[in-house]
Amino acid sequence: MRCTFLTHPEVVVDPAVPIEDWGLSPQGAARAGRAASVLPRPERLVSSAERKALDTAAVLARSWQLDAEIDARLGEMDRSATGYLDPQEFEPTVDAFFARSLESVRGWERAVDAQRRVEHAVRQLVAETPERSIVFVAHGGVGALLLASLTQVPITRELDQPGMGSLFRFDPTRWEALSTWQRIA
Questions:
Q1: DSSP string of 136-153?
Q2: Closest C-alpha to 147, from 179, 173, 117, 123
Q3: What is the C-alpha to C-alpha distance for residues 136 and 7, in angstroms, rounded to an integer?
């Protein structure tokens, strides 16, 4: 069994809208369409419950004529304690989230807890789907945490995606990464 973890592409950033409700930008929607054309059709498509992931999964589902399922455990790390942060504040906070994985940085979900949550979700979904391919549509932060687990290395931001709309492939049976991040052109 081989699975793909795909992050949502570019979004419309609106500080007045809750982060989990941001949708895809026109560029992001186009990149999601390209993802549907470069990835083989899976037998199962599972998305985070956040709008940007749902929008991505909807593009894929239409292209593949497949129903998208929702699993909230695939959501990004909980940042509701701070909400939107401008990039000058956001980037150092993300650095601290990865560097101090056992701590709640600024009230955010701890990295180790987010890692356990996404790993548990993936393992359970795979167990329900033996011998079937799955595409997981989620977010870069939890993708980096899953990739750390799959490569058996400590949590680090060095495993973060190169940009929104990136993917890696993995073998959930052997629990190992089959690729590093690849950006959808």
A1: EEE-HHHHHHHHHHHHT-
A2: 179
A3: 8
**Which residue stretches of 39-184 are H helix?**
51-64, 87-99, 111-127, 140-151
Contact 165, 32 (CB under 8 A): yes
* Residue 175 and residue 150 in contact, taking contact as beta carbons nearer than 8 Å: yes
Give the DSSP H/E element, type plus range, for residue 167.
strand 166-171
H or E segment to which residue 47 belongs: strand 44-47
| pTM (2 d.p.) | 0.96
Which of these, 150, 151, 155, lies nearest to 114 by C-alpha position? Answer: 155
Q: How far is CA 106 from the centre of its chain?
A: 21
- Interval 52-68: pLDDT, tens: 999 999 999 999 999 99
Q: What is the pLDDT of residues 71-80, one digit of tens each?
A: 999 999 999 9
Sequence-distant (≥ 6) Cβ neighbours of residue 159 within 8 angstroms: 144, 147, 148, 151, 153, 181
Q: Which 8-state DSSP code applies to residue 170?
A: E
Between CA 141 and CA 112 the distance in angstroms is: 12
